[in-house]
Amino acid sequence: MSISSVRNLLNKSLSSTKKQSNLKQSPLSAKSNSFADENSAPIDPNIQANEPQFPLNSNPKKSPSKISVSRNKSLDFSRVDTIEEHSTAPDPPVKVVVRIRPKTVNEKLGDPTIRKASEDSVSIGDRNFSFNSVLDSNSKQEDVFEVVGVPLVKDALAGYNASVLSYGQTGSGKTYTMWGPPSAMVEGQSPSTQQGIVPRIFKKLFSEIEREKENLGDKQINYQCRCSFLEMYNGQIGDLLDPTHRNLKIKDDAKNGLYIENLTEEYVTCFDDVTQILIKGLSSRKVGATSINSKSSRSHIVFTCVIESWCKVFDSVKQETPTSNISSSKTSRISLIDLAGLGKDKQVDAGREFERERKELKTSLSHLGHLVNILAAGTQPDDLMYRDSCLTHLLQQSLGGNSKLSVICTISPDINNYVETLSTLRFGQKVKSIHNKPVINEITEEHMDDLTDQIRQLKEELIRAKLNVGSGGTANGQLQGRSIRESVNQLRISLNRSLVLPSVDNEIEEHFSTDEKDVSELCKHLDNLPQIL
Asked: pLDDT tens digits, residue range 81-101?
């Protein structure tokens, strides 16, 4: 039995359809201009005024492939500048960063009412709000990346799930911070570039994978990365990589976990592959002209990258190649969420469609705020509360679950946006009180040994239960449920599964009908488990 049989017991990826379609080079003509204005850089002395032309010079792979890192092989990555990591302190499970955008030419100058008070606080009038970090209007894209992106890459390679969520009113710089303008997508990584934190994250990610080969020693590590890109528009989920896939459904079951049915996944092996996916997805996003933005985002978008790695150990004494045994395997998920914002904006030639968009955005953000309030109060919501909207359902792991979360709250320095800015800061403070429970998603040989013992114990309990049935202890094939259910729970927890059966009161002798087909299938998959150790 291969390691994949065991991994099938873990959480499935967010998508059930793994398409290895070939992404074609899409010319950035009128379609790419649909998000150019949305990502236009703010007027700021620290940002270059001239933007280079946007070249397309890469194509994603036609089929899925693994990034093999071994002492005998080299990787084909684009060269990137090494970024020094200035902080070695571990990141908290939930981190909130506030960024103040520069004033525009139409906004009032003078004594700022909304300003950065310290490195971790912002003042608005006579009120102070504390966060993990505050970046003023002179901050660069590189500064945001150092605070949010660098720790995220480190966590993802260590096996943690990691999420970044941008939140703020329309026109406050969310999309610019996350993605940057389209022409900057392929710029070299330097402090002065306008490139957003998302392309910087993946440039850093593949650079770190390449650098890891230099310190392998007696190991071989294989990496496999796959990406998906979706949007939530008017309460429906659409596939940004295949616009024909609309109104997709969220599935959540015991076997597959949480996933989007028929969502396209693309396998990537380098930064250029990710760039092409970002270009294609962003050009399909729904936008609309408002009084604040000529290309204002009208939908929430989520970019997801699942990273899987397998480590094999060399026999340093015999100088042999790695055996077929896998010493450990890790799976991590990077979720990058860019929310559409609300504000005092008025759409040019607004009609019924704009009112529907605004209503749906307001409803989804309202559900999000309600969920955050409950989590901040220390209460664990039930599954039904997460399912109030597509947005909260998809963020179930990011908010209060198995993930490290960074929230970027973007605000305007203009006093005319006082109410919206105050609302954003309050949201950030609530999020800061949420307690996520991130764990390293790793299976090691020691875990396999423990798993084998638990499987043996579970089989013994099943045998005893069957004997009890044969002796007339229960009727009609019903088994005593408490011990079996607790054993299955323990087994699933060991497998890092998100599904845990409802707890059973020890004082209540509960009976339930046992479906031996599921148990037999589980045992059949796990009978040969010691063979992979």
From this structure: 444 444 456 789 999 999 999
